[in-house]
Amino acid sequence: MSDSVNTPEAPHPAHAPGASIRRTRAKGEPRFPDGPKADPAGSHFERRIRSFQPRRSRVTAGQADALQRLWPKWGFDIDGRHRLDLAEFFGNDNPVVLEIGFGMGEATATMAAADPATNILAVDVHTPGQGNLLNLADQQGLTNVRVGNGDAIILLREMLAPDSLDGLRVYFPDPWPKKRHHKRRLIQPAFLSLAATRLKPGAVLHCATDWEPYAEQMLEVLTAHPDFENTRADGGFAPRPPFRPLTRFEGQGLDKGHVVNDLLFRRVQHGDRPGAQRSDQPSTGA
């Protein structure tokens, strides 16, 4: 798919909502001059196995408009060069939950609207989804959403202070189903060690997936990790909590017989578990 800007080069007839407008960019011209950068961290950090695959797909006129208008206000690039002051960033001291991978943002907007006293730091690399979430936040008058562009590992490691997050949500991450790609899965011991340093004691890591083998791996890895404990007394999967919306995609999967598993694990206080050890500088090869 061409990585072209979907804004017009000359006056044109009115377009229907959601329509895509395309023109060819000059070489080196940024896709959205006031919006998210293509590679915000650049080559400033070590190369590693990525748990995500950047997607380049068509941006609608509404999404492009939202990126141009709202990115300077509610968006940020994950460049790893400064630490975020979350209270200053959101303009209040409300709890902050990090959501990694929000797709088109419908569920994120629904959760933000239902709980305005909780700030959501939503991170993804999908440009249309970034624009769509900004558009939804604008239309619904949401002030508790900020949209991050780039690698969540760099955000956690370089830009967030220890014990700064009140929760972490990872909904339907890429399952990387082929065995040779399992090393790319996000929920791995090293990622959990890093996340634990940024989560406050008692904060909940909430994962959901419709890929059963990945769900089993998540449960195994989280259960074995000393910094997390299952909120389920039986040590198994949790029912979908009311605050996680049922998305259209998820509903279609359930209609086809797919099984969706939720996992809710609490970050334990250091020392709560016998022999538990934490490091403030964990390996980050997720």
From TrEMBL:
Gene3D superfamilies: Vaccinia Virus protein VP39 (3.40.50.150)
Residues given in the record as substrate binding sites: 178, 210, 247-250
Chain ranges passing through the membrane: none
Pfam entry (one): Methyltransf_4
GO molecular function: tRNA (guanine(46)-N7)-methyltransferase activity
Pathway, per record: tRNA modification; N(7)-methylguanine-tRNA biosynthesis
Keyword tRNA processing included in the entry's annotation: yes
Biased amino acid composition, Basic and acidic residues: 26-37
Alphabetized NCBIfam families for the sequence: tRNA (guanosine(46)-N7)-methyltransferase TrmB (TIGR00091)
Name of the featured protein: tRNA (guanine-N(7)-)-methyltransferase
Source organism of the structure: Streptomyces fimbriatus
